[in-house]
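Notes on consecutive records. When two proteins share a document, each keeps its own sequence and its own token line. Never mix them. Below: protein one.
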Amino acid sequence: MSPMPEVPGVFPLDEYPIHQIPAPIEYVGTDRNFYDRSYWNAHDRSGEIFMVMGMGYYPNLGTKDAFICIRRGEEQTALHFGDAIDSDRLNQHVGNFRIEVAEPLNHLRLVIEETEGISLDLTWRGLFPAIPEQRHVMRAGGHRAILDAQRFAQVGSWEGTIVIDDQTYDVSPDTWVGTRDRSWGARPVGEAEPAGKPADPPFDGMWWLYAPIAFDDFAMILIIQEEPDGRRILNDCHRVWPDGRTEQLGWPLVTTDYRSGTRTPLTGRIEIRLPDRTEVEVELESLLPLAIHVGGGYGGDSDWSHGQWRGAGWSERVTYDMTDEAVVGRVPFGLTDSVCRATWREPGREPAVGWGLYEHGVIGLHRPTGFTDWFTHAD
């Protein structure tokens, strides 16, 4: 039997009871910046290699894309993929990059067929349940929402193989860990929009910390955002147990030590109060930083941004020398993801060592940290 032809306005996903608005499931409303994206990272705890990967769909831009960004030593290499969007959303793929969902929220597979010397075949398994995060909203000038997104987050392990320029990495879940999130909503994507009236007040900066960490017995997922004056506009912090129970971790107090002459973190100290008022201290150590706006396409990437149209079946490989002054000058204007070694110190139990992601950035002003303009760096 030949395949049934599709008729405009009716899509295969409309067979499933998953609609959210009175429209076909492919339609997402009128915001040009609507996106639907997955983010992943992977490392072997050594600080010798760190990978960040992602795939995004942008229905109102007619595009989809994917990327991998790899940091090894002083070199950061990115692969970018782009194509026209299609209606087969259950088959997530962009060029040679695909994601297979074997068991939702637990077991997935990421594959990159050989592209300019890079390939991988990795299986993800969740170590603890995925949890929802608070809805994340940022407004320009106190009015227009420039970001309105929902996420879920998870920590997990990896198994499989990675090949980078003829060097093969055998990925074992005993050592390879990572974190992931799925987010959707609206945020700046694609080509720049007309500026319109300047925001009043203008954007003066932000302070950001995202730390999903897997310990042996539990996970910590912590996300905090502050304004230049230290006012906290996002505070969503939990401990996650294997059976799905979660504990709120209150209002953590954070202290950060930066590399001299930079805004890149070396270590962080987080003071937490558990629901029973037990005082906990968590130490974060950055073993290898990766600037996600240098080849990763996130905010501030001047070479490639998510959602941009570069043509059907497009791909490219780009390599950066992270000691190059031109690249070094870009790093303070975006977020840095780091291989993280964490230590949880709680009275009455031995210190617990965990591994995951240490994502941090101070963009522009943050007076509590001592960054009083866009160009101040740590002593």
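Protein two starts on the next line and is unrelated to protein one.
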Amino acid sequence: MSAPTAAITAARAAGAVAARHAAEADAGRRLHGDVVAALTGAGFARRFVPEHLGGEPVTFTELTEAVAAVGEGCASAAWVASLTAHVGRFATYLPLEGQEEVWEKGPDTRLVAAVVPQGTTGRVDGGWRISGTWNFLSGVEFCDWALLLGPAAPGGRPTGKERFFVVRRDDFVIEDTWDTLGMRATGSHSVRVDDVFVPDHRTFRQADLFEGRRSEEAGGARTGVPGDGLPIFAVNGLTFAAPVLGAARGALALAEQSLGGTDGRPPARDAYRTAFALSAGEIDAAGLLLRRVAETADLGGLTPGLVTRARRDSALATRMLAGAVDRLFKGNGVRSTATGAPLQRYWRDVTSAATHGVLQFEPAALEFTRR
């Protein structure tokens, strides 16, 4: 196995900080400031920022392992780290003037996004005016900018005209709406915007991002960051599955302590040892699936078939990870259900993360069979 890269080494250090504060973050529904600083110091915000604006790009393979390294200590921290990185790639679809404004204070600027069309928008001279409430912006408590997708159509139907609007932190109000079973410290709250002006250079079409197309409106030029030109579903699953992979590895390490026989504990029963081995194998297999998704994206030039395979593999890996952690949790006995038991926190986080829409297997499977 090759030596870890600088990005992965930095992520492991950030993961150690996150692990120390994981229980506190879960109870308080908020990442500790030291954890946010550690994630920033590990370079997650700058991973898809163009190099001429100070970015330090890494491959999708490196980023996936870096996010998983954080997730071994705290799934919520890994989720925020992953989205911080990937949303930066979204912002490269802005016109060049918009990119320069967003990153004018440096590449560690933190971005968040709402990717479900909401709110209302209206064209005005030189830009747009937007209003409304947008939900589920992970990491919004610590962000500098928010990318908000609008407008909403009646009944949630797509209009084909959806756009991302990039809004300064001073131009929206955070509403405390995130209080969940798991992933509690992601801070995926809502934001409210009241008639804010967004200039043309701080908006871009959703279709460009989803199709991996650089339109003339956005300057047309490639940025040189990883994934430039890739459709979003080629890598979108990695965004959310990598934290689950890390959390599953963390749960496995905890569960291994219950095997006993080396620290004064009685050896575990054969049934639990068998369940542990099965879960360990599934976690390894899921990691290999996600690595293939990442390595394929790093090669570029993806065909539609490879894109649908990536979506399928990310959803399948998540299903395997959730099943593996569920088996470990249930097999570990009543001790794992105690309020302060770390294993139940991993179980809650993985179970909750696996419900994300991007990670659902059925739509991914149907898309795969229709390619």
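For the record: Residues 270-299 form the longest helix (30 residues).
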